[in-house]
Amino acid sequence: MSLLTLPSPAKLNLFLHITGKRADGYHNLQSVFQLIDLYDYLSFDIAYADLSINQLDEVASSDNLIIKAARLLQHHTGYRGGCRIELQKNIPIGGGVGGGSSNAATTLLALNSLWQTGLTLAELAGLGIQLGADVPIFILGKNAWAEGVGEQLVAVDLPQIDYIVLKPDCFISTKQLFSQESLTRNTPETTFAAYQQNPTQCGNNFEAIAQKLYPEVAQALAYLNQFGQARLTGTGACVFLPVQPEQDITAIMQNAPCQSYFCHGLQRSPVHEQLGLV
Ligand SMILES: C[C@@](CO)(OP(=O)(O)O)[C@H](O)COP(=O)(O)OP(=O)(O)OC[C@H]1O[C@@H](n2ccc(N)nc2=O)[C@H](O)[C@@H]1O
Ligand SMILES: Nc1ncnc2c1ncn2[C@@H]1O[C@H](COP(=O)(O)OP(=O)(O)O)[C@@H](O)[C@H]1O
Fold first, then answer.
1. Of 104, 109, 123, 139, which sits most exposed with the smallest number of CB within 10 A?
2. What integer pLDDT is reported at residue 274 of this predicted model?
3. Where's the active site on this chain (predicted)?
4. CATH superfamily to which 162-264 belongs
5. What number does the ligand 1 atom closest to the CA of 97 have?
């Protein structure tokens, strides 16, 4: 098989605590990653000698994490062939829902299969972390409890929940939010068991800063908070609300102040199901 089309799912951080700053400037965190059925689609055709991708308005091809992931796999394994990659982008960029990281992970998984380079998931996650802190969760392909910078992952079972996700009309840089002086960097460590007992007690340390810097985020959170407990995902800009079937989901979405998505929580990534990595 030389041609393959795969989905690339998004994620939510059900909570996000920053627990310390490391000597290298990165921050330690604790989080629960929930995979959701908001997908980009990537097509891979390895009947090409070079690496190439269709042009994306927002990202130069040489900066695209998809190309960076493919190059990294080539470099690591010495594989000499190429691939033509087509990306259909649906996941909002800079939204805190991990689209770029997910694209990188889908690329590593797909090309490791098509190029028959034979790396294990642990080896692919080791490559992925060089591209971004969120890549390993998409290589694992399961909901997870995360520590370290997001690379220490333990797969967890989460209740089946649906979400409304809003994308405020602004772009948030992860680096910029981490560099804010007012960021709480010393949240006491917790455990997955403690989180499960009382999930609403765990929040997102970036929520106050994102709302202050971006009124669009404050507006989206205030809107969703009328219907339950809304949260920021990652460093934003997206915010999400867990919803029950009896709520008027259509009305909540129609009256939202910005773009809205209805998403199911996934138990595992469809990429792994499609590639037989069960
Ligand atoms: C904090 C999270 C939670 O999911 O935010 P989102 O990106 O999803 O919003 C992620 O782990 C982010 O991962 P990712 O977006 O891949 O970040 P990277 O590109 O690795 O890092 C961008 C910059 O953010 C800072 N950074 C990032 C992660 C971290 N644990 N500590 C940091 O201090 C560093 O300054 C780094 O240069
Ligand atoms: N394939 C890609 N899809 C999305 N963003 C990408 C991609 N490749 C590189 N990027 C860059 O990665 C950054 C973070 O994008 P993304 O992962 O969508 O956001 P977030 O980390 O907030 O969830 C953006 O600034 C974008 O320029």
1. 123
2. 96
3. 11, 134
4. GHMP kinase, C-terminal domain (3.30.70.890)
5. 8
User: What three-state secondary structure class fits 53?
Assistant: strand
Strands 83-88 vs 51-53: parallel, antiparallel or unpaired: parallel
For this structure, is 21 an active site residue? Answer: no
d(CA 247, ligand 2 centre) in Å: 32
CATH numeric code, 3-157: 3.30.230.10
State if residue 144 touches ligand 1 by the CB under 6 angstroms criterion. Answer: no
For 131, other C-beta atoms within 10 Å of its C-beta total 21
What's the gap in Å between 247 CA and the centre of ligand 1? 34
Alpha carbon of 271 to ligand 2 centroid (Å)? 19
Cβ atoms 274, 6 nearer than 8 A: yes
Q: Is the C-beta atom of 10 inside 6 A of ligand 1?
A: no
Atom 26, ligand 1: residue with shortest CA distance: 26
Domains 3-157 and 162-264 share a fold: no
pLDDT given for residue 150 in this prediction: 86
Q: Is the CB of 29 under 6 A from ligand 1?
A: yes
Question: Which secondary structure element, helix H or strand E, spans residue 17, and what is its range?
Answer: strand 3-21
User: pLDDT class for 249, splitting at 50, 70, 90?
Assistant: very high
**pLDDT tens-digit map of 70-109:** 999 999 999 999 999 999 999 999 899 999 999 999 999 9
**So where are the chain's domains?**
3-157, 162-264
* Pocket flag, ligand 1, residue 149 (CB < 6 Å): yes
- Reply yes or no on whether the pLDDT at 241 is more than 80: yes
Ligand 2 centroid, distance to 255 Cα (angstroms): 28
Write down the residue that tokens 């804010």 correspond to.
180
Expressed in percent and rounded to 5, the helix, strand and coil fractions of the chain are: 30, 30, 40
Strands 83-88 and 144-147: unpaired
Annotation says 11 is catalytic: yes
Nearest ligand by distance to the CA of 103: 2
